[in-house]
């Protein structure tokens, strides 16, 4: 059976579902021994702000929300200072706060999310995608490597150093 996946902007009505997914992800990070997302961030206010600013996106599978991410255009102040070097200095999409519903965990949904983000980036004629993750978020590190993202160095974000990646799209 082929499921239909779609990327769409999150609506305020999606807030509680998204927050539930983030809470699951916080717990999974903790179970994995990761320090990422263990200090009260992100929180419900983060989700509300993402949606209000138009940054919140959901990947749906046959209409059901499976993955959440914040997609921010050209704006991540922490990325202006990198220990290393970005691949480009043109326009970019920043990917933050990726969370998967436990029901969809382990099904390659984040890879599908990144496929949709790449299509979105291409459609907006934006040069690249930039993303950072915790050094101990093994699942995300493997996904970024498998999707062809290049390690560019480290950025200081949310009180700690994060591994920074970029992929040139156009």
Automatic annotation (TrEMBL):
<dbReference type="InterPro" id="IPR000182">
    <property type="entry name" value="GNAT_dom"/>
</dbReference>
<feature type="domain" description="N-acetyltransferase">
    <location>
        <begin position="5"/>
        <end position="166"/>
    </location>
</feature>
<dbReference type="Pfam" id="PF00583">
    <property type="entry name" value="Acetyltransf_1"/>
</dbReference>
<dbReference type="InterPro" id="IPR016181">
    <property type="entry name" value="Acyl_CoA_acyltransferase"/>
</dbReference>
<protein>
    <submittedName>
        <fullName>GNAT superfamily N-acetyltransferase</fullName>
    </submittedName>
</protein>
């Amino acid at each position: 059976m082929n499921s239909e996946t779609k990327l769409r902007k999150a609506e305020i009505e999606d807030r509680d579902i998204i927050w539930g997914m983030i809470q699951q992800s916080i717990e999974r990070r903790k179970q994995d021994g990761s320090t990422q997302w263990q200090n009260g961030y992100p929180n419900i206010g983060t989700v509300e702000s993402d949606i209000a600013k138009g940054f919140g996106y959901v990947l749906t599978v046959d209409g059901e929300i499976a993955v959440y991410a914040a997609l921010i255009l050209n704006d991540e102040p922490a990325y202006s200072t990198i220990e290393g070097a970005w691949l480009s200095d043109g326009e970019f999409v920043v990917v933050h706060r990726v969370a998967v519903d436990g029901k969809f965990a382990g099904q390659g949904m984040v890879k599908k999310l990144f496929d949709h983000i790449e299509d979105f980036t291409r459609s907006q004629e934006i040069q690249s995608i930039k993303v950072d993750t915790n050094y101990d978020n093994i699942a995300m590190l493997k996904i970024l490597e498998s999707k062809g993202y290049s390690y560019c160095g480290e950025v200081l974000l949310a009180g700690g150093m994060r591994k920074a990646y970029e992929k040139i799209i156009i």
